User: Which sequence fits this backbone?
């Protein structure tokens, strides 16, 4: 069945409308419909991974029109990997109760689940499409859905969302312009077709401009330093569940687009030698890692700290691209998966704390460790993984990145990776210390706090256990899914 | 050397993790909770001991679990070096468990569940380090040990303890970062991280790479082994409850660093390449300086635990210095000192803990005449002190004998003098306590007796072990033979 790509996508689009319609009558039905849609999509995404492992690349021609005339959907190792992450984290976010995930419970007028499913549909669409323009369409779908979702966080979130809207639209326009240039030069929008037709055009300034526009656009979307300015506000004012999705899977999809262009639409040497794209991304990422970590240390607000941490963590993914060797890229791609689990878990914990105690500033968290032992244990696992303590998942993305840096002989990148582990330790252990070692100040909010309900706790615990499991089985993921992708790079 | 498939190494690691699950069951009576610790400790020791005969026969139990990175497995193998560490740590955990129960109930300490659970995790990690068959497996358990010790360091939750915890993390996590670098660099140079006696680096590796790798190991394992100037976390961590200082900061954690050096020098870099590069001399210089400086600082400490901490700093460097000499005699001495120092130092910490619980005194200057009230405790203290000073027939003499002999073999007279001088300093800062305890006039200590048997029996037993290991180093549990086997396999040729 080569149509697993479209089968992953279709339930999301379909149920985005169903959940909105039934939500007009009953909010609970909307919830049920959203969960059903996510589950259907998850089954298809899981089956897609197994099918790709067995058969390799799966191509689906929409409406039976073969490319270059029709739109093609492609499921290969990279897109199957991405689609499964998106749908899994999506399911976790949908299951997470809205009263904890949003600051104000959703009203009937706001089709929250419809927007969420539309967001996931856009994200999955970007990773499974084999068409350059279709990718833009999905890019806009997920962007528009996310602008709307961010506004659910309250007044300040509206401003943050508007700022993101402007920069996100600029990014989208850059991408569209770049695709337009490629279309002018090659006369095709199909990725595989364009890949062949672009080879003789590698010295063309038009193609170079196209690559520059697309890469800059995507660097804005993935919030790579110094193009990250929209992120800290958008992610810290958005409600926790939305922030979990935005930080866990949305920005990573932009990184996917860069990797897709680098590996399959162009030949890697174009991004490495002809244009210094990987070098530029690598250095932006390296500075971003240090910048994001230092800024995270300076924050008092838990979610804002997590937002700056995202700026740093997306740098790891950028660094993996920037190293431009197989081990480095494996590290970067594995970090997409690991970061999705860690950061989503942390944002959902932030939601749980806010919901049970109303607190959001780290200095006031003193003594919470004993009040919410399970949730805080999950937090600690995610924090250790962020620092890179084995055997949690975060250690292994660092391990491959370190190997990649040594392979490339890039000692600065190596030093950045190692130093950022310590900076990350500073801002996470500061909170661990507050939770467990500093006696409670007697704050009523802390004294009366209890473990949150199962609806909040279970998604968090699933992610925390997942972080440990991903660490232990990382070799399986790397050899099966990521090595075939990274093999496209010259070692 | 043969290996055979066995579940025992894995069980030895997992048994205390299972205990963690049982310990944290809420709302159980303290006696039930503590029984899990005791049972896990006994089971662990029994498992490790049951592997001793085959290891002595050169047949190593091994288990390869699964691939943790392409080409590298999570694998355990119990060789002669591993079982020296594993056996001493698991044996002392039994005694420390009993002592801990007496201590936390005597003080009394809060949050005892967290305390016992963290302790059990630490012991699992220690076994993992001892039995790791490759460097990646060792690094994983090494980092787990770092993290699992943190709750014990901050246990008292005073500002002082929190500061100690921060300092601990800064030092240890920085060491961990260098260890990750060293691990990746090793993999890059040799394409494997599986330990082999004599090293795994290819012979054509340039001396500069060897020096760099060695410095990376120095920056990582040097932190846990408290080689100056990377030592200062250890005295600060003395804010932890005394049993923690006893088992972790004299046996498990710090010896994990020393053990890491043994693996790095003997099983990764290899003595031949290290000798060519000349890098070992740097470490020898640092450790020799550490031995003397730590002793001089120890003399000035009035806090008993701080004095013992600096003594530990010095004795850890004995072991590392012995390893850098790359002669069979020095290696045997160093490996024996891993065990011997552990047994002697844990006795001293137990004594400090017993005194604290009984009298709430921590300062040496407050101990005048305490020997008459706590005669067993102070007798044990004196015996261990004599051992650390190198007085026969206590076990400290045996390891020092081989260390000095090894330095003569290598023609390194200066190092022999360092060892001898340090013995005198040890006698100075430890036996002065004995003299105070027994001979100084006292008016205060008339109403105290010995601490509870839960504490006195373990410390008497460890003192007895010191004596037995000194009188019969070649008898059960055959530490001398094990150490000779390691030295022979790493350095080639026969024992000393």
Assistant:
């Amino acid at each position: 069945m080569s149509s697993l790509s479209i089968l992953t996508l279709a339930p999301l689009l379909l149920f985005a409308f169903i959940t909105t319609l039934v939500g007009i009558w009953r909010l609970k039905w909307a919830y049920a419909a959203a969960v059903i849609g996510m589950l259907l999509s998850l089954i298809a995404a899981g089956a897609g991974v197994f099918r790709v492992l067995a058969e390799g690349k799966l191509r689906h021609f929409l409406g039976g029109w073969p490319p270059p005339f029709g739109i093609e959907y492609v499921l290969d190792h990279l897109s199957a990997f991405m689609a499964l992450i998106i749908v899994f984290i999506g399911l976790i976010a949908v299951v997470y109760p809205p009263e904890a995930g949003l600051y104000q419970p959703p009203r009937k007028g706001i089709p929250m689940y419809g927007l969420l499913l539309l967001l996931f549909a856009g994200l999955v669409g970007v990773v499974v499409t084999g068409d350059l323009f279709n990718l833009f369409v999905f890019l806009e779908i997920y962007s528009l859905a996310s602008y709307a979702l961010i506004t659910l966080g309250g007044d300040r979130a509206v401003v943050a969302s508007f700022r993101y809207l402007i920069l996100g639209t600029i990014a989208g326009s850059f991408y569209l312009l770049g695709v337009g240039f490629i279309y002018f030069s090659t006369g095709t929008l199909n990725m595989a077709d364009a890949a062949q037709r672009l080879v003789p055009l590698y010295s063309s300034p038009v193609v170079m401009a196209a690559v520059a526009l697309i890469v800059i656009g995507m660097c804005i979307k993935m919030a790579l330093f110094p193009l990250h300015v929209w992120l800290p506000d958008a992610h810290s004012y958005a409600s926790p569940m939305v922030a979990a999705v935005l930080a866990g899977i949305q920005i990573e999809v932009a990184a996917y687009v860069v990797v897709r262009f680098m590996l399959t639409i162009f030949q890697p040497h174009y991004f490495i030698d002809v244009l210094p794209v990987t070098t530029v991304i690598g250095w932006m990422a390296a500075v971003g890692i240090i910048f994001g970590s230092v800024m995270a240390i300076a924050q008092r607000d838990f979610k804002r700290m997590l937002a700056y941490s995202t700026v740093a963590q997306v740098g790891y993914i950028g660094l993996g691209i920037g190293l431009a060797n197989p081990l480095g890229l494996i590290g970067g791609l594995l970090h997409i998966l690991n970061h999705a689990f860690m950061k989503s878990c942390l944002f959902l914990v932030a939601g749980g704390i806010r919901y049970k105690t109303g607190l959001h500033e780290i200095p006031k968290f003193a003594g919470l460790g004993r009040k919410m032992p399970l949730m805080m244990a999950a937090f600690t696992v995610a924090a250790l993984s962020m620092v890179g303590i084995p055997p949690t998942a975060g250690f292994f993305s660092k391990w491959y990145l370190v190997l990649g840096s040594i392979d490339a002989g890039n000692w600065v990148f190596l030093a950045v990776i190692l130093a950022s582990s310590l900076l990350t330790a500073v801002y996470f252990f500061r909170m661990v210390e507050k939770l467990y070692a500093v006696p409670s100040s007697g704050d009523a909010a802390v004294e009366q706090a209890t473990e949150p309900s199962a609806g909040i706790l279970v998604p968090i615990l699933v992610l925390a256990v997942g972080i440990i499991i991903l660490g232990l089985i990382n070799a399986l993921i790397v050899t099966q899914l990521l090595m075939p992708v990274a093999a496209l790079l010259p070692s | 050397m043969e290996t055979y498939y066995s579940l025992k190494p894995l069980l030895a690691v997992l048994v205390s993790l299972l205990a963690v699950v049982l310990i944290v069951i809420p709302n159980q009576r303290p006696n039930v909770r503590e029984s899990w610790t005791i049972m896990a400790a006994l089971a662990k020791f029994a498992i490790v001991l049951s592997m001793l005969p085959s290891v002595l026969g050169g047949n190593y139990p091994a288990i390869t679990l699964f691939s943790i990175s392409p080409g590298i497995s999570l694998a355990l193998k119990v060789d002669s070096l591993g079982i020296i560490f594993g056996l001493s740590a698991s044996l002392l955990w039994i005694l420390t468990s009993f002592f801990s129960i007496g201590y936390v109930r005597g003080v009394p300490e809060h949050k005892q569940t967290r305390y016992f659970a963290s302790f059990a995790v630490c012991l699992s990690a220690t076994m993992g380090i001892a039995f790791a068959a490759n460097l990646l497996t060792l690094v994983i358990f090494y980092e787990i040990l770092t993290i699992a010790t943190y709750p014990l360091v901050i246990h008292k939750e005073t500002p002082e303890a929190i500061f100690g915890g921060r300092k601990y993390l800064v030092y240890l996590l920085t060491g961990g970062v260098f260890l990750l670098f060293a691990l990746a660099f090793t993999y890059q140079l040799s394409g494997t991280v599986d330990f082999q006696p004599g090293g795994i680096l290819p012979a054509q590796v340039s001396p500069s790479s060897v020096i760099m790798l060695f410095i990376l190991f120095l920056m990582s394992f040097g932190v846990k082994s408290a080689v100056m100037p990377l030592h200062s976390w250890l005295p600060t961590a003395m804010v932890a409850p005394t049993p923690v200082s006893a088992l972790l900061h004299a046996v498990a954690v710090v010896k994990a660093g020393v053990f890491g050096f043994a693996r790095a020098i003997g099983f990764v870099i290899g003595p031949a390449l290290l000798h060519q590069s000349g890098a070992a001399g740097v470490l020898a210089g640092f450790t020799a300086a550490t031995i003397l400086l730590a002793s001089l600082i120890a003399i000035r400490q009035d806090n008993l635990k701080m004095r013992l901490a600096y003594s530990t700093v010095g004795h850890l460097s004995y072991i590392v210095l012995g390893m850098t000499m790359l002669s069979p005699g020095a290696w045997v001495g160093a490996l024996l000192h891993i065990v011997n120092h552990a047994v002697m130092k844990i006795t001293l910490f137990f004594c400090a803990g017993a005194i604290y619980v009984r009298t709430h005194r921590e300062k040496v200057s407050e101990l005048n005449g305490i020997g008459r009230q706590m005669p067993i405790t102070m007798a044990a203290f004196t015996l261990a002190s004599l051992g650390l000073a190198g007085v026969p027939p206590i076990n400290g003499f045996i390891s020092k004998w081989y260390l000095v002999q090894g330095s003569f073999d290598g023609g390194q007279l200066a190092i022999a003098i360092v060892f001898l001088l340090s013995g005198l300093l040890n006698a100075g800062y430890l036996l002065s306590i004995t003299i105070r305890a027994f001979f100084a006039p006292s008016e205060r200590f008339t109403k105290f007796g010995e601490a509870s048997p839960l504490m006195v029996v373990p410390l008497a037993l460890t003192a007895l072990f010191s004596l037995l290991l000194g009188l019969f180093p070649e008898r059960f549990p055959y530490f001398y033979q094990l150490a000779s086997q390691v030295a022979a396999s790493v350095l080639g040729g026969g024992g000393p």
Remarks:
- Residues 279-496 of chain B form one domain.
- Chain B has a mean pLDDT of 88.
